[in-house]
Amino acid sequence: MNGKLPHIVQYQGSKRVLAPRILQFMPKKFRRLIEPFAGTAAVSVAAAAESRADVFYLNDLNAPLTNLLRKAIEEPSELAREYAALWNEQFSFGDRHAQHFFIVRDRFNQGEQSPANLLYLMSRCVKGAVRYGKNGNFNQSPDKRRHGTKPETLSANVRAVSALLKGKTVFSSLDYRETLALAKPGDLVYMDPPYQGVTNARDSRYVSGVPFQEFVEAVADLNRRGIDYLISYDGRRGEKAYGAELPASFRCQKTLLNAGTSAQSALLGRKDTTFEALYVSPTLAEAGI
User: Fold this and answer.
1) Among 27, 102, 105, 172, which residue's Cβ finds the most Cβ atoms within 10 Å?
2) How far apart are CA 9 and CA 39, in angstroms?
3) CATH of 1-289, one of 3.40.50.1360, 3.90.1150.10, 2.130.10.10, 3.40.50.150
4) pLDDT tens digits, 128-167
5) For 55, phi and psi rounded to 5 degrees?
């Protein structure tokens, strides 16, 4: 791994860069790490690399994404083979190789939601910026400047992820509240819910948004039950703050983590730095992790 954490696919919104910082707020050892908004499981990969937990629970309401996680972890060689076939297929289109992306996207949106199809779309789309339409269809366009992750690179990454998580991981595609209901003392919950700015409606980057008050009530229940948690939630970009803070009554420790230059501002010719807030549950904060 050359000292770097492996990742299934690189995309906007991943916590891979911030994962080592997030782990600084975790206990050195705990029973189970639960990710109700798993995405591509960057935090679980980082925690597994340091043997922090015995079991990992990866949940995402986006079922095709959960199936991709399962395939990458449980059957990495087969996923790498299927991805390589798709990746190589684009070159049969010659200079029109981007057209291949639209063909695969149509297949996916019409029901062929295999892990390999989704992985190819995520790898090949513009700047790794996954987007969904109001009807739930994948609607991002291909990046015409590149061909997506090379099969040999992807194969090495998924095999490395599998080596860390295979045999230790449970998968589901439930509402996040159902996942939280399973948490017990001794577990640690890490949550990275959809971007707050649009949580009253669908966020084009996610299959579903999460209303603020609903989320607050879910976190309050974790506090009542004495469950340890970390939450990536609000923050700021440049001088602009985004998202409402969690209630002060929760007594969480809030830390701003430097996430680097905003990709969105870079597109506009600016160099705004993004800071993402990390909330540490009162029990963890009091323990001085």
Assistant:
1) 105
2) 11
3) 3.40.50.150
4) 888 888 888 999 999 988 899 999 999 999 999 999 999 9
5) -135, 145
